[in-house]
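hey m, so remember when u said the tokens were messed up on ur end? i reran from scratch. heres the input so u can diff it against urs
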Amino acid sequence: MSKKLIELKNISKSFGDNLVLDELNLYIRENEFVTLLGPSGCGKTTILRIIGGFETPDIGNVFFDGVDITKLPPNQRQLNTVFQKYALFTHMTIAENIAFGLKIKKKSDEYIKEKIKYALELVNLPGFEDRMPDSLSGGQQQRIAIARAIVNEPKVLLLDEPLGALDLKLRQEMQYELIRLKNELGITFIYVTHDQEEALTMSDTIVVMNQGYIQQIGTPESIYNEPTNAFVADFIGESNIIDGIMLEDRLVSIGGQSFKCVDTGFEKNEPVDVVIRPEDVELSAPEQGQTTGTVTSIIFKGVHYEIQIESAIGINFMAQTTQHFPVGAYVGISVIPDNFQIMHKPQSEDEEILNPDDIPAGTV
């Protein structure tokens, strides 16, 4: 396993009366692609800015390769940032944009020329040296912004929602480009987004945040398949989140009907949140289902149908399936035991969705 490169210890940050980060702990390993994911205002961009040196924490320390860099200015840190708005110099050619940081470092003309050529080849834009930024598409401008960052050979590349201004097709193309660049360059990527698909597609590790706290850290597969709480389940993909009663180990009641599950460790008759992914809701002939229901709507999504069913137990289910069931169809509904995710309910309305003390201080 690669070594820790960046470590945030007990980081707190407020803007006025607004507490954005509260005693946050996190470490990031060398050569990881780590995505900070969460809704607007959750603190993910503040973390990125603290790592980059653009903000100073009120409390806590930032370590880079074991050295405390909390008070080090951005230009003395071994990292570069790519912003959503590109920040290219419109009066400079592409070559001059890429060379800007190298000239500040007083590199030789020959060195700069070679680096410009290398960076443009990396982002698949060879021969663009003499073009002006306004002659490029949005995707091409974003690639130049990345080329300008990587030409300085940072150990870490910080990316603050860099694909947010691109259309869907360009965004998907750039996702693959970023994965390729990360693998070719062997540097650490720290990526901020609120887009779940981006996070699932590109990341080695996802850090899910809400209200200044880390909710869950893990691989895309573990975050999606084993969400820690209802917030993570609802934020990562779509979910049926249903009130239930844990009757005993491996047996949950939903709408008054008992279903087998694989979860243990709950109190008898404990109220719980039951999470079922739409793709795990199986539809069949009525007599083959664990319960039954009537299709109330169907939407074609390209690779599957999204179907709403009003069930006989009073629960409205969303199912995703390649089978077509027309509105009004009477169907069977089943969920296998492995596909129920059972979660403790918060003890009060004011309780945080997940206590930060329950989160491991690092990536897994």
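this time it looks ok to me. The chain is about 25% helix and 35% strand. if urs says something different then somethings off w ur setup not the seq
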